[in-house]
Amino acid sequence: MSEDVINQVQEAIACSRKWSETGWPVTFGPRNTEVSSLQQAQSLPKNFVFRQEALNYWNQAKLTGNDAADSGQKALDALKNSNVFAADNALYFCQFIEKPFAEYSKTWLPLYEEFKEKRAGV
To answer: Which residue, 15, 19, 77, 84, has most beta carbons within 10 Å?
Structure first.
């Protein structure tokens, strides 16, 4: 696989590991209070009713991002060893792990789809 794909996977790994830091717009509660990162969730007042919900969401984003990045590392290792089949499996798993956040994270699904196209020679 090309050096370009390897670079894309490396970038996706780094991005995925930072989902909870860089974040995206998410709202909580009936007033739609925006909490766009784990740091913002942690800084909410203790009496904010939806603080725990925001913390749980962003902690889950952090764990999910790290899990996807771990699988991405497997894909990267496979690509460096010219094992396209193993890379395909690992990238598939990355986009599967990302699904709960894919609407916002947009990291692994686009990469996996592009990888499949390149692999198919489209």
So the answer is: 19
- Cα distance between residue 93 and residue 87, in whole Å: 10
* Helix (H) / strand (E) containing 13: helix 3-17
Nearby residues of 82 by Cβ (< 8 Å), 6 or more positions away? 1
Alpha helices in 18-121 (DSSP H): 19-22, 38-42, 51-80, 84-98, 102-105, 108-120
Token pair for 97? 């792990």
Using CA atoms, how far apart are residues 22 and 38, in angstroms rounded to an integer? 9
- Mind listing the pLDDT tens digit for each residue in 14-34? 999 999 999 999 999 899 999
Convert the pLDDT of each residue in 52-62 to its tens digit.
999 999 999 99
* pTM of the shown model: 0.91
